[in-house]
Write a structure and sequence with these properties.
275 residues; alpha/beta; 12 helices; 6 strands
Amino acid sequence: MTQAVECILQLVQKADVPQHVCTGNMDHLALLQQDAEFRAIYSSAALVLADGMPIVWLSKLRPDTASLVERVAGSDLLYELCRASAWTGLKLFFLGGFPGAAEAAKKVLEERFPGVQICGTYCPPKDTFETAEEQGKITQILKDANPDILLVGLGAPKQEKWIARHKMQLGVPVSIGVGGSFEMAAGMVSRAPRLVQRTGMEWAWRLCQDPKRLYHRYIGRDLPLLMHLVADAGLLRLGLKKPKPRPLIEEPRLTVQRINMTTAPAEPSEAVAPK
């Protein structure tokens, strides 16, 4: 998490063009199998985070990948970015979520992190979201607010596709899809206890809360894929299968300046000053 926040702060400060960050979970992996546009968005992301314990487990099981240190959930990242905003002055904007969720989350987070710079919220209506008029309104709202980081809660892959299509026009340094994080921060949706999160069973907690909507996603799509990937990792470890060649990344990666998040300064410093 600390490295993720450091990278995002550096992207805001140093990136020449607007960037986006993806928070991958098992459902994203399932969608990536069948959605070429979604795969292209992941391939062009400045940073991809593991928002799901199964992703972390798979990284440790597969002999051809580096082991991930920990899960970096979008709902946790929201809190850490607010913490960073309180001492760097970075401006955050909340877009999407259930009606009223983003504004309610703003109030909760402003109480929890005094000094956090949440420069605006907006919940676009679903029925007119795709219209040119509504998109023009969103663009103007964001240009007026001029955030450093845009947090989008429209659900995947809608939020990632919207970000990819509009980020250059909006000009926000960093945009991140955060799913239902606003509802969780606002207390509209109950998040699983920490023990449940650490054991990788948060999906079961959510399934119990909304079985009608999530059964097909978790049981019909994600669980079979997880079983397949675990079996695939087992074959690789036993030497019964050869890893597929991975494309080399030609472009240079951003050099991240280390920032001690545990002893963050009370006032913004030159090292982490916003744009």
